[in-house]
Amino acid sequence: xxxxxxxxxxxxxxxxxxAMTALWIVPSPAVAETQPDGGALAAGWIAAHDGPPKYPxxxxxxxxxxxxxxxxxxxxxxxxxxxxxxxxxxxxxxxxIVNLTPYTKFxxxxxxxxxxxxxxxxxxxxxxxxFDFGGTPFDSIxxxxxxxxxxxxxxxxxxxxxxxxxxxxVVADVRGTGYSQGSWQFLQQRETEDTLxxxxxxxxxxxxxxNIGMSGLSYSAINQFKAAEQNPPALEAIFPVEGSTDVxxxxxxxxxxxxxxxxLYIAGVDIIxxxxxxxxxxxxxxDLKWLVDRIETPLEFFDYFLMALSLNVDxxxxxxxxxxxxxxxxxxxxxxxxxxxxxxxxxxxxxxxDIFASSSARSFADIPLPPERKKLIMGDTYHANPxxxxxxxxxxxxxDVLQMAWFDKWLKGIDNGIDQYGxxxxxxxxxxxxxxxxxxxxGMEYQRMYLSPARSGTANSVYDGSLSxxxxxxxxxxxxxxxxxxxxxxxxxxxxxxxxxxxxxxxxGRDDRIHELGGLTFTGAPVGEPTMLSGPITVHxxxxxxxxEGYWAVxxxxxxxxxxxxxxxxxxxxxxxxxIDEDKSEKDADGDYTRTVYKLTFADRQPVVPGQxxxxxxxxxxxxxxxxxxxxxxxxxxxxNFPRGFLAPPMLFDGGILNALTPQHVxxxxxxxxxxxxxxxxxxx
Length: 685
Fold this sequence. Notes:
Elements: E1 4-5, H1 11-25, H2 39-50, E2 60-68, E3 74-81, E4 94-101, H3 105-115, H4 120-130, H5 139-145, H6 152-156, H7 160-164, E5 168-173, H8 189-203, E6 208-214, H9 219-230, E7 235-238, H10 247-252, H11 261-273, H12 278-282, H13 288-296, H14 302-307, H15 318-323, H16 329-335, E8 346-351, H17 357-366, E9 374-379, H18 399-412, E10 424-428, E11 432-436, E12 445-452, E13 463-468, E14 476-480, H19 492-497, H20 506-509, H21 513-516, E15 520-523, E16 531-545, E17 551-559, E18 565-574, E19 586-588, E20 593-595, E21 614-627, E22 632-638, H22 649-652, E23 664-668, E24 675-680
Parallel strand pairs: 4-5, 4-6, 6-7, 8-9, 9-10, 13-15
Antiparallel strand pairs: 1-19, 2-3, 3-5, 10-11, 12-13, 12-24, 14-23, 15-22, 16-21, 16-23, 16-24, 17-18, 17-22, 19-20
Helix pairs in contact: 2-18, 8-9
């Protein structure tokens, strides 16, 4: 058993940490843990959002308002303003919410309209909420459809109920998307500057009282984090839903692999950005500069995809190679994040099966604020169904309700108790909804569980090994192939990469046994009492190859007495990208990695030597779970993870075309053991 310690990089880090502690933590009283549903306080938050509106008139929208950036590029925004009972636009300066989106403000408008059809919208949402496949093989459909009633759609669109309670809401197309001019910058520095300039602009308008909050999900949530790192004076609170503070590791290049989500996402944004705003056309808001910009850059970033089709690493075109280097504009956009600089009150929502799960889960620890000023909710959800089931008994309040309560507190100064919520509400896998004071939970200690060749008799797989708390005495070389690993098409990771769409197949998304047919399994003994796991995990493998490249995917599973194998967390790694960034990684007292961060540059690539044992550490997403009595822990190892991850062509074919099919080996050697390093609340046997 080993106690976790964080790797401190420099005296400067210690100084900053001490200063932040003195500034934020010392003066603040402790926040008691509340129930996930918010208890009695939640009734007040719901009444404030859903009760009689302060301004009952139909919301007024100013369409395509031009906002000129410092370089002359014009962004277009829709501005939602409340209207009083007499039909007058409210002239009183009000707190203002800003949402910058690449999905177009027209799409936000359509979602807004759908959510606000008199009588019909609420009736349909209520009907969907009651539509329950629970107890059937299709109950995952319910998990997806109940996102509609969980409040997330109103964090994507402009929440008219929030506006009617006394807010102005600004939805703007980010540069190069929607009806805004320019070329899409994809989270780069220029886009962050635009965000800060739009916040400043909004704070100085006659309809704004100068207090700004930010809303939005996914890309719009990432923009919130990036803006909050700069701590602009007008920004008082953010409410990011499914955002990321580490886009490269979360989704762009996780473990040195690529997935289908990234290319399909970029293609989708490119396509919708080339359609003119139909409302703008109808109102005569023609913009020839917009048209010229789209003609000049119709398919942003697809040139990099074409460059990535090179058949070996040495032939990768220089523009793409440069963008992988530290300091490049794209790499900085995806890696140069500093949540430790955020001083803006932050309420973060993430899902354990979201593509951004890793950095969402870390955000509570990374943001250096007292618990009154930061919150974290991690749901049992994918990217497509945030807040699923929220508002139902025993679950957190709806996301739109929590969002308005957060803004009421920090933009209006209303003492509504939202600062006492949580502070961390987690869907604890294997248990249910819980609250805690922090994540990872206190009291966790890291323990090695060794991969052993002794057969467990519990799995149908390429090889059925076991997990042991003691170093195995037997040696073995186990072989696994990318060919058998194609069972990853029916896996939790496939459901994750599809944003949850493939989760409707319960036998893939919830039960890993089909997936396990193509991999190596290592299963422990049943636990005798509830055993908690909370925090990041690392799987340390001793490997061998027949070529110059390899690809590994691992999962950590909870195996029930009836044999169902449920993925708790997963990770992947291209063998040549195994170089670790020691400054960002963390180790326990015995030197084993707990949080593992890779360098992920071609300059740091380390091709493997055929036939030579190679040790590597596979980072696994953070987890919060309980193994119930009679359940077992299992670690699975695969040589493929499509569509969640696969080797880019330059790496896949670097050792020849057959590298795509070449088997890989796990070497189980008592002198150089393979193991999983787990954060546990009690020792595993």
